[in-house]
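Page 42, continued from yesterday. The earlier attempt failed because a stray header line got pasted into the input along with the sequence. Redoing it now with the clean sequence only.
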Amino acid sequence: MTRLLVTMGDPAGVGPEVLLGSLVRLRSKASVTVIGDLCWLKRCARKLHRPVPWDRFEWVDLKNVSNRVRLGQIQTDAGQAAYAYLEEAVRRLREGRADALVTAPVSKAAIAKAGISWIGHTEYLGKEFRSKTVMMFVASGLKISSIWSPQR
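This time it went through. C-alpha cells are written below.
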C-alpha cells in the first residue's frame, strides 16, 4: 500500500480548506498521514461544515498553531507553522516512512515574515533532496507539471 504524506499548508490561508475538501472526497486505498495541527483542522472543518472521516487517517499533530493566528492574515506564526509541517514531512521521507508527498498551499509572504528564506515547495524539496523535482497542478480537465532542477 502506498504511504502518502499530506501537509496542512498555511493555517491562516486556504491550506486547511483545500486539505479538508480533499480528505472528504479521497477515495484512495493509500495510507494517508496528515501533518499539521489537528485542533485547528477540526475547528476549520466545523466552520466549513466538512464531515471529515477523522479515523480514516493517521495524524501527526504538531500543535503549533498559536492563539494569535487569524484567518486571512499574513502572520509570522502561520509561516513558522507551515514551514514546520514541511520540515516534518521531509524528515519522514528521509527516514523511508512515506512514498509520496502532497502539500497544501502556503503563503510565501508568511514564511518570509517568519525569517525563513523561501522560494516555494518545489525549490525547497529540490534543495533538500538534491534532485530534480516536479510540481503538478491538477484540476478538472487540466493537468500541468513543471520540473525544477537545483543549481549544482
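Notes: The helical segments are 15-25, 38-48, 76-94, 108-113, 121-129.
Reminder to self: strip header lines before submitting.
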